[in-house]
Design a protein that fits this description.
- This protein has two domains: about 80 residues; about 80 residues, no CATH class.
- Helix content is about 75%, strand content about 0%.
């Protein structure tokens, strides 16, 4: 019985050790913000701070970057891990949605608005919304067309021609 208790304790200690490592991951974002803040402080000083009566172009960026650096330092030093939600499948879905927005921007530049909007809507409807292929394709095509009519035709927003413009001679 003593041997099974020690094995159980070892499993518990191993689980606690792994959980403790995951609790430290909450420090990554504040550390990145701290690094960005320090770089911004250095960069804004390079722009020139000027004087109080004649502020230079780097004064406001300097003030904002000091605030960012101070806030990030406080988060690194004082913010307890217990305040954070654990990473779950939902967290991964949120990250995937944000990454898809970045991909949309790249596709928008290369393929144009209509194709990028269609692909983005298709992804979000099918993968994130769980719609059937029939609904996803139909809604994505209709949504891309409505967005094109709204922004390009009604509001006159100039978008890159992309693939559709090249095909139809736009």
């Amino acid at each position: 019985m003593h041997g099974s208790t020690s094995a159980s304790e070892a499993r518990t200690e191993g689980t606690v050790g792994r959980a403790h490592r995951w609790l430290r991951l909450h420090r990554i974002a504040p550390l990145l913000l701290l690094a960005v803040g320090v770089v911004a402080v250095i960069g804004s000083r390079g722009l020139g701070l000027g004087e109080l009566t004649a502020p230079g172009p780097g004064l406001w960026p300097f003030i904002v970057s000091l605030l960012l650096t101070g806030t990030a330092a406080a988060l690194v030093l004082l913010d307890p891990a217990e305040d954070y939600e654990p990473w779950t499948r939902g967290t991964v879905r949120i990250i995937a949605g944000l990454v898809s927005l970045g991909v949309f921007i790249l596709l928008f530049q290369t393929l144009g608005f209509v194709v990028a909007a269609f692909l983005m809507l298709l992804l979000w409807l099918r993968v994130f919304g769980g719609e059937s292929w029939r609904w996803s394709v139909g809604l994505a095509a209709g949504g891309a067309a409505v967005l094109y009519l709204l922004f390009v035709e009604a509001l006159g927003v100039p978008f890159p021609d992309g693939l559709v413009g090249a095909v139809i001679g736009g």
